[in-house]
Amino acid sequence: MSGRLAGKSAIVTGAGSGQGRAATVLFVAEGARVLALDIDGAAVKQLADEVGDSVIPLECDVSSSEAVQAAVRHAEECFGGLSVLLNSAGVDLAGGLGDGPAADLDEEIFDRTLGINLRGTYLMVKYSLPMLRRDGGGSIINIASISGVVLGSSQHAYATSKGGVVAFTRALALSYAPENVRANVIVPGIIRTPMIDFVLKDEALSRRYIDGTPLGRIGEPSEIGHLAVYLASDESGFMTGAAITIDGGLTLQ
Ligand SMILES: NC(=O)c1ccc[n+]([C@@H]2O[C@H](COP(=O)([O-])OP(=O)(O)OC[C@H]3O[C@@H](n4cnc5c(N)ncnc54)[C@H](O)[C@@H]3O)[C@@H](O)[C@H]2O)c1
Questions:
Q1: Structural domains in the chain (count)
Q2: Model pLDDT, residue 152
Q3: Whose CA is nearest to atom 41 of ligand 1?
Q4: What is the pLDDT of residue 251?
Q5: In this predicted structure, what is the pLDDT of residue 81?
Q6: If you average pLDDT over residues 12-29, what whole number do you get?
Q7: 178 Cα–ligand 1 center, Å
Q8: Do the domain assignments include residue 116?
Q9: Among protein residues, the one whose CA lies closest to atom 31 of ligand 1
């Protein structure tokens, strides 16, 4: 198979929907094999049915250490190695309504949000690293959010989890650079996926976001996927520790 990711094997979390799904389709189009993880097992099964043998679907809750370890063992069995880890699984449990401020924030919402968005990313990295290091290096790609890096949001749990993902990625980049394991984080703005159904279904709110975005539209999942392909490929071989905003200019003003 030829392509920019020919010969590479990847794990993608949150592959059943949105940005993880789009990235998986593009990874395969560029020659990679992908272990597609999602808590929604039916969604990754359907993706594999559509895309073909290069996608191996597996139900996995990234907040569970046991499930993550089993998934990584499965990658070892299927691929015998690992080149790329893309952590796209994530939740916004308040459905965009804002899960704060802190005094009104349920402890359970805080714990679940950090458990999936931040701890899930940490678990996937922790258990994938032995394979990434062993094979002479690799690329870790995490997905944060503009909520994690700019103020102006009442998402106290979600923003905290995503700010944590940015800091975690930088720490990884520094620690594992000597072993040629790169780590970069994508910082998306508003992207057309089921996560923002609350925006897409509300015409006035959609208009507010579109008007507030210099490029005048909402982003598409494939636009994040194309960046993920670049970060996964050897073309980005000198890039580590970068937080790349892709938001149509929303955070410029
Ligand atoms: N859509 C946006 O506007 C936007 C903006 C900034 C950041 N993000 C981030 O991008 C990432 C991808 O989200 P999306 O927009 O594609 O949303 P999405 O809801 O379409 O996809 C998220 C996927 O993660 C899966 N998931 C949720 N909990 C899981 C768990 N515990 N274990 C495994 N899988 C789990 C879901 O089943 C779903 O398939 C998320 O981390 C999200 O926080 C989204």
A1: 1
A2: 64
A3: 90
A4: 95
A5: 96
A6: 98
A7: 31
A8: yes
A9: 61
Residue 1 resides in a domain: no
CATH code for position 128 = 3.40.50.720
Q: For a pLDDT cut of 70, what percent of the chain falls above it?
A: 98
Q: Is residue 118 part of a domain?
A: yes
The pLDDT of residue 153 is 67
Closest CA relative to residue 223, chosen from 244, 209, 194: 244
CA separation for the pair 55, 33 (Å, rounded): 6
* pLDDT for the residue 99: 87
Residues annotated as catalytic are: 158
Torsion sign over Cα 98, 103, 108, 113? positive
> Tens digit of pLDDT for each residue in 88-143?
999 999 877 778 899 999 999 999 999 999 999 999 999 999 999 998 999 999 99
What pTM, to 2 d.p., does this model score?
A: 0.98
Q: Which of 13, 86, 87, 88 to mutate to test ligand 1, by most ligand atoms within 8 A of the CB atom?
A: 88
Task: Give 182 Cα–ligand 1 centroid separation in angstroms.
Answer: 22
Pocket test for ligand 1, best of 91, 210, 227, 246 (most atoms within 8 A of CB): 91
What is the residue range of 101's domain?
Answer: 9-252
Question: Using CA atoms, how far apart are residues 26 and 21, in angstroms rounded to an integer?
Answer: 9
> 91 alpha carbon to ligand 1 midpoint, in Å?
5
Q: Quick check: is 3 in a domain?
A: no
- 235: burial class by Cβ within 10 Å (0-12, 13-18, 19+)? exposed
Q: How far is the CA of 230 from the centre of ligand 1 (A)?
A: 20
3-state secondary structure of 51: helix
